[in-house]
Amino acid sequence: MVKKFSLLFLGALLASLLILQPLSAKEQLTEQFFQGALIVGKTAPENKVMLNGKAIKVSSTGDYALGFSRDEKNNSELVITKPDGSQEKQLLKPLKREYNIQKVTGISKKIMNPNKKANIRAGEDNKKISAARKVDSDLTAFAQGFIAPIEGTITGVYGSQRYYNGVPKRPHYGLDYAGKKGDPVKAPADGTILMYVPDMFYSGGTMIIDHGHGVSSTFLHLSDSYVKVGDKVTKGQLVAAVGSSGRATGPHLDWRINWFNMRLDPALVLKLKPLK
Ligand SMILES: [Zn+2]
After folding, report:
1. Quick one: which H or E segment has residue 118?
2. C-alpha of residue 54 to centroid of ligand 1, in Å
3. Is residue 162 helix, strand or coil?
4. What's the gap in Å between 244 CA and the centre of ligand 1?
5. Are 67 and 38 in contact (CB under 8 A)?
6. 221 C-alpha vs ligand 1 centroid, how far in Å?
7. 232: CA distance to ligand 1 center in Å?
8. What is the pLDDT of residues 44-100, one digit of tens each?
9. pLDDT tens-digit profile of 125-168?
10. For the domain 101-269, what is the CATH superfamily, name and number?
11. Is the pLDDT score of 7 beyond 60?
């Protein structure tokens, strides 16, 4: 009985050691498993990658993307399967972050208490945004590093709990940059324009750029767009102009990064170093 128990225990211990082992040197992963982080990996292109039991796309150059949400508390299990069936596993532990509190005042009644018509409009806007964020293209721009879309002071950060006129609202998911109306907004990485709508209810002029594998940039409150849906853009290319359309207290750029519908932190994305 004792022997049987200790064997079982040993088995469990071995299994947990196996899973906690970091990936072999051939497998690369960007090393910042913070809540809200985009994580980029590189493997042999013929390998299969599963995250928590779900397959994720591997590019012809072996690149793949995954993310941790703002409040992720659970470990993720990454499994890489080679063509011969052998596997490597790693547990990715999200690193907890503290988010700040931001108070926003002077929001108009119309925006604070949207009427039925406004709610319908916002619902239609959301459908367009979700459809764009479902795109899982073969682009690998997400693996090549990002630049800031605008030169400006950062006035709002990812994750902050927001109070509008004293009422608690959803956390803020963008990186806000101060700017003047008309200031140039550049593509933070190569990509394809997935969506541009000049007048969404909350976000005003709204553009979404696909960077591949479900990773996208969204720009809010724009006053103009210089590209069309379907256009290919390169990192640093002028794509839009800063504005204050929608729910904005003044002209600024709000830049968001998503991995599909998961909202990630653009500030962490800017720190990503491309894997060799
Ligand atoms: Zn914002």
Report:
1. helix 116-133
2. 32
3. strand
4. 11
5. yes
6. 9
7. 26
8. 999 999 999 999 999 999 999 999 999 999 999 999 999 999 999 999 999 999 998
9. 999 999 999 999 999 999 999 999 999 999 999 999 888 888 88
10. Glucose Permease (Domain IIA) (2.70.70.10)
11. no
Q: DSSP characters for 48-85?
A: EEEETTEEE---TTSEEEEE--TT--S-EEEEEE-TTS
Handedness of CA 270, 271, 272, 276 (dihedral sign): positive
The predicted-structure confidence for 193-229, as pLDDT tens digits, reads as follows: 999 999 999 999 999 999 999 999 999 999 999 999 9
pLDDT above 70 covers what percent of the chain? 92
Q: What's the confidence (pLDDT) of residue 1?
A: 46
List the shell of residues around ion ligand 1, using CB closer than 5 Å.
156, 174, 176, 254
Token code pair at residue 210: 């696909």
Report the mean per-residue pLDDT for the chain. Answer: 91
Q: How far is the CA of 101 from the centre of ligand 1 (A)?
A: 13
**155 Cα: distance to centroid of ligand 1 (angstroms):** 8
Q: For residue 174, is pLDDT > 50?
A: yes
The CATH class of the 2-92 domain is: mainly beta
- Tell me the two tokens of residue 24: 């072999």
> What's the gap in Å between 124 CA and the centre of ligand 1?
20
Q: State yes or no: pLDDT of 260 exceeds 60.
A: yes
The domain segmentation of the chain, as residue ranges, is 2-92, 101-269
Closest CA to 249 of 158, 126, 164: 164
State the distance from the centre of ligand 1 to the C-alpha of 172, rounded, in angstroms: 6
User: Does 101-269 match 2-92 at the fold level?
Assistant: no
From the CA of 23, how far away is ligand 1's center (Å)?
A: 37
